[in-house]
Structures are given as C-alpha cells and as structure tokens.
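LAB NOTEBOOK - FOLDING QUEUE
OPERATOR: T.R.
BATCH SIZE: 2
PURPOSE: Compare the predicted structure-token outputs for two unrelated chains run back to back under identical settings.
PRIORITY: normal
REVIEWER: second-year student, initials M.K.

ITEM 1
FIELD SEQUENCE / FIELD STRUCTURE:
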Amino acid sequence: MDERERINRLRWRCTRRAMLEMDLLLGEFLERIFPTLAPAQADAFIILADMEDLELWPLINGSRECTDSVQAEVVALLRNVRVK
C-alpha cells in the first residue's frame, strides 16, 4: 500500500466515527497536525484512531489517563485542536 492510500484509509477511519465530535476532532487533527508528527507519534495516532469512540473519548476528555507515553503526547496534541 502506498502512502496516499494509507492516508486515505486513515482519513476514512478518522471521519466516519460514531460520534460527530470525534469525526470533527480527528479529521481536523489529521489534516493540520498529523503531517508534522514524528514517526513514533504518527504510529501512536494510528493506534488511537483505530480505537472505538467509547474507548478513545475518555482519554481525550481527561477522564482516563493514557498509559503509553507516546500516545499521551498525541492525546495532549488532540486536546489542543480547535475545530473550525
């Protein structure tokens, strides 16, 4: 799979969520922040994007702590995204 196809698949996972808030947040993050991530952070984001909304949302809203340090960095970045 080439890079373009990989990003298109990731875009699909980020914008076809059960929660509209997650669609908007992950979609905005993918477009604006994802291209600037270090490779380990990009991998962590992909893992986070594969989580179900009910599992990911508590990490983003701070009601559950992230145990992986790199994922925690990405979650911190997600918390700072302002959706247009």
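ITEM 2
FIELD SEQUENCE / FIELD STRUCTURE:
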Amino acid sequence: MAKYPRSRRLRKKLHLEEFQELGFDVETELKAPLVGNAEEELLIAFIEGAIEPRGLIYGGSVDCGYVCKAGGGSATEEDRNEVKQWLEGRSEFSSVTTRELTDAWYASLTA
C-alpha cells in the first residue's frame, strides 16, 4: 500500500494503477534507402494497414516509433504481434523489432 494513497479521481488523471495505459516501441531497418515519396507512402500504408484498423495511434518515422491505443486504454500483446506481422510482411524491411509493452505515460521515467 502506498504511503500516501491517491484518490480514484487522481489515479485516473495521472494514468496510474488501474488507469495505466500501455504501448510499445517499434524499430525497423530498411533493406535499402527509399527514394522520392516511397518513405511517406510506406508510412501511410503502415498506418492505414496496421495501426488504424486496430484502433491504435503511431508516433514516429519509418525506422522507429511508439504505438499506443487511440483515445485511451492500452495496446495489447495481440496488437503488438499483429503490427510486427504486418511489418515483417513488407519486403522493404530487413529487420523488425517490437519491444515489450511499457507504460505509455511514464516509460521514460522507469526505463
């Protein structure tokens, strides 16, 4: 038990305990540099094909970023696996890494 317990309202506002939200890092390596608009087109395809259909949001670029649930809530292991599978299915990438689920609000403080 916490030394100074927080009210439910405060825990919700701070995204703590039962209100914690999880997301995950994505890292990729391209087989070759993309030319022209190819990088933008790949990023749009990723967002439209893997992120939006699962109700997720993505912040980052083609080579790295962070995925979490749109509108609050947590990304799941299933989300992580589906995103990884989509990326691995693309011929542009030589490697794809999806990290473990982490606290979307406080991950940098605990890492």
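REVIEWER COMMENT (ITEM 2): The chain has one domain: 22-102.
FOLLOW-UP: none requested
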